[in-house]
Amino acid sequence: MKIFQGNIASPLGFSADGLHAGFKKRKLDFGWLVSERPASVAGVYTTNKVVAAPLVVTRSAIEEHGQMQAVVVNSGVANSCTGSQGLADAYSMQRQAAEKLKLEPHLVGVASTGVIGDLLPMDKLEKGLEKIVINGNADDFAQAILTTDTITKTVAAKEMFGSDEVTMAGVAKGSGMIHPNMATMLAFITCDANISSQTLQLALRQNVETTFNQITIDGDTSTNDMVLVLANGCSGNQEILPETAEFEKFSQMLSAVMTDLAKKIAKDGEGATKLIEVQVVNAPGSKTARMLAKSVVGSSLVKTAVFGEDPNWGRILAAIGYAGADITVDKVDIYLGPIPVLLSSNPVAFDDEEMQDIMQDDELVIKVDLHNGNSKGTAWGCDLSYDYVKINALYRT
Amino acid sequence: MKIFQGNIASPLGFSADGLHAGFKKRKLDFGWLVSERPASVAGVYTTNKVVAAPLVVTRSAIEEHGQMQAVVVNSGVANSCTGSQGLADAYSMQRQAAEKLKLEPHLVGVASTGVIGDLLPMDKLEKGLEKIVINGNADDFAQAILTTDTITKTVAAKEMFGSDEVTMAGVAKGSGMIHPNMATMLAFITCDANISSQTLQLALRQNVETTFNQITIDGDTSTNDMVLVLANGCSGNQEILPETAEFEKFSQMLSAVMTDLAKKIAKDGEGATKLIEVQVVNAPGSKTARMLAKSVVGSSLVKTAVFGEDPNWGRILAAIGYAGADITVDKVDIYLGPIPVLLSSNPVAFDDEEMQDIMQDDELVIKVDLHNGNSKGTAWGCDLSYDYVKINALYRT
Q: Do residues B159 and B249 lie in contact, with contact meaning Cβ atoms separated by under 8 Å?
């Protein structure tokens, strides 16, 4: 597999674009993604009981029809907690986009992200829809879906399946209200592989637990977040079937794309100055290991300590202890980068200067060895800075 | 029942004091509390798997002997995550304090709070123990147990039991690493009632779920936290027995003292500028109602919005949605103070100036009516400010 510089329209048969429709003051805020033919589709959605209107519309289209050919997205207004009017607006967004693209409405997915509680300004949406052209600048799609993100998040990969080259690309947004459970944030992945919707869903499910579900910014699970994967078969490869070597290869490709996007989201967490990766090893099970890793990376006290470049490992052990896992904690090792700070649950002295070098880096790896099983799990997050507070105290007003 | 200005030594037969022993640079950091006779005792402890050494010592003394006559506490160093040496030090603290007070060691409880991972400086402890005198200034005890707290937290109450006046007093500390589960933070409650340890434990258990367990500052459950209640019987009242009207009266008194301390802890959360009280009503069960209230009050996004005085009610509904409760969310009402912002899950327009008045207050009541049952629950917390980040980025170094 080869990771390369590409965009969401790199796979054969896809085009994408983004523009300014007026949901936000100046920035791009309306994007669309179209395949030249109906594509297989798989999705995972927020587990929040409060589900935003566009998710209801998109999920029901996918569940009822199992194919998708286009996705339209706006940022700035989330169309969430907007009651019956919001749901009518989301259906209208789907129908109007379908008319413009000359597709059946059920082939069009809709997504929104931004402020919760405001109705979608339909006049601005119509202005956006009017301007849709095919074969635009796909890099603008990655821009158009952002909210408080500071950078676009894109990845592309190529792999041979038989004699056919399959290309996959992903784009994501997400910077706050990030604490995935099933799936959180918006991510769109395109692929020109020949694979059924059912098999695609299998591959997505298989990888979401170890990638997007292992990042946390602030512990808040959004009402709007979803991951959609579209595969249009344009590469001409033989159909990828479950429980085959080709499926494993495809799943690994998808895992690489999803892990890359997940880490990019964590690193661009609201106000973040550092990426934190927590590896838990020798735990009694993978699920436990992932849960422990996520507990550490989600701890406000660990996050503020990392922001302060303070090797406060006691907070790491405390977060392991309160995670709710059935584990023993009497022989725990903790490493900050390569430096051991706790061995067999007893503190270890370390060199302050060496430690300072590790803590000043913009990526910190925390490794926790439980010596209580042989499973491992990784989670990603970011530090908690003054800017997180600033961004969220002032986001709406 | 009458709440009055008192301190931890207000109940008959108790004395307390605090002094500077050197665990901290300048502030009081060593306190003790003594009863003139062995008292009934009840305790609840952190549910963190990582339990600090002093808790192990105190819990085992209570479990094995069921009485307590003195408690010694230091702040500045938590004696947590300190391995076998830390446990030996905690036992030594208990033994040395018992010698000084001429008591059996099992009648002495020990507690520590402060930085995790550092060994207890035993020379400083000895210096503190040397200076113990009976009948000191009980207000200094409340000072001596603080860490990042900005104010002392004390409450006292009186109530008649038959012809005897019973006095109860409580003191607590806690400002960060506050997310109780069973019990978190340090709280000591004294009482001169005649009640067995077993009945006292019943009353404590009954009230901890609705008071201390309903506050959260940062979602981090500490390794050191416990609540101890001592009742020495000095008031001479007839023994309070379970399942009697007198027990109910006693339990309500304890509830009032614990609720008062819990709110004081929430209001003095690290960096806090506002107390947030979340009331969830008409929920399918009390436990669900409490869980939902705690989810809202614990949301980083709600907390930052309150800090920014932004009526961002969408984040409140989102936190209800991701709490993991089995509820319906299609007819939710939300009020900020007296102002409705969501009725039957549809947004309601409000007057900006009226809202500004509510948001600028130093206490905000958020009420969520689920219309999905008839149980209620309350939780308390505080806003998330720049100072929370500052305090925790720089606490250790």
A: yes
Rounded Cα distance between B51 and B59, Å, is: 11
For residue A157, give the H/E element and its range. strand A153-161
Chain B interface includes A48 (CB < 8 A): yes
The torsion angles phi and psi of B74, rounded to 5 degrees, stand at -120, 150
Q: What residue of A is the nearest CA neighbor of B348?
A: A117
Interface of A with B in 221-280 (CB under 8 A): 221-223
Q: Are A221 and A181 in contact (CB under 8 A)?
A: yes
User: Which is nearest to B94 in space by CA: B54, B59, B62, B148?
Assistant: B54
State the best of A45, A46, A47, A48 to mutate against chain B, taking most chain B CBs within 10 Å.
A48
**What helix, strand, coil percent values describe chain B, rounded to 5?**
35, 30, 35
CA atoms within 13 A on the CB side of B16: 28
Give the Cα separation of B262 and B172 in Å (integer): 8
Residue B44 has pLDDT above 80, yes or no: yes
ipTM > 0.85? no
To test the contact with chain B by mutation, choose from A270, A304, A320 the residue with the greatest count of B C-beta atoms within 10 A, namely: A304
Strand order in the sheet with A375-382: A346-347, A339-343, A333-336, A363-369, A275-283, A375-382
Domains and CATH numbers, chain A: 2-264 (3.60.70.12), 275-394 (3.10.20.340)
Closest by CA position to A395, among listed B308, B319, B206: B308
Sites in chain A below the pLDDT cut of 70:
175-184, 217-222, 394-397
Find residues 362-381 of chain A whose CB sits inside 8 Å of chain B.
none
Residue with tokens 């409060």: A50
pLDDT digits (tens, 9 = 90+) for B52-94: 899 999 999 999 999 999 999 999 998 988 888 999 999 999 9
Could you give the 3-state DSSP secondary structure of residue A124?
Answer: helix
Per DSSP, A240 falls in state B
